[in-house]
Fold this sequence. Notes:
By secondary structure, this protein is mainly alpha-helical.
Amino acid sequence: xxxxxxxxxxxxxxxxxxxxxxxxxxxxxxxxxxxxxxxxxxxxxxxxxxxxxxxxxxxxxxxxxxxxxxxxxxxxxxxxxxxxxxxxxxxxxxxxxxxxxxxxxxxxxxxxxxxxxxxxxxxxxxxxxxxxxxxxxxxxxxxxxxxxxxxxxxxxxxxxxxxxxxxxxxxxxxxxxxxxxxxxxxxxxxxxxxxxxxxxxxxxxxxxxxxxxxxxxxxxxxxxxxxxxxxxxxxxxxxxx
Length: 241
């Protein structure tokens, strides 16, 4: 192709057709520019496809992490629900309008009294899976998520709600440690009947306050699970083919 254009230029110069040569040269330049623009467009298109695929992979990874988080949240909520219900069976304060909310009604279950000793145990903190999100941020790839509303929703969960969850859990750790070590005998030997008989004693008040803190933490677990489900639905909508 290059040889073909070179021959045309040489023939025009040999025939002393300068004006036609200039027109030809301008046309050749235009063709070259068009070729470059087309090449750039193809390259941009290919890069766009790569970035879209990468963004989709990040979103799918985050969605899978959120689903695993919700499995853990379900387990934690069930664990705390039994402890909360054990106290609530004796003192209905948790059903007071101050605490009641439609989201949390399922917390009140028929408690398994055989698990009564676990009311003295340390709580289990929620440890989210953050690998995909952390990797995306560390690699500077957050800009790949073009749906900024979706990205802001992801940020809210990973940068705000997770920190809030950790802070709430840390707030009742001192009480947790005190209960765990102060009532070693009761933890080992007490039955539900003993707990019923203690309702006027300091130990019951301590346990009530401890469970109240767990109830507050469980509300946050509920809210996070709800937000996770909403975000999972948005990601599925964004990544559907």
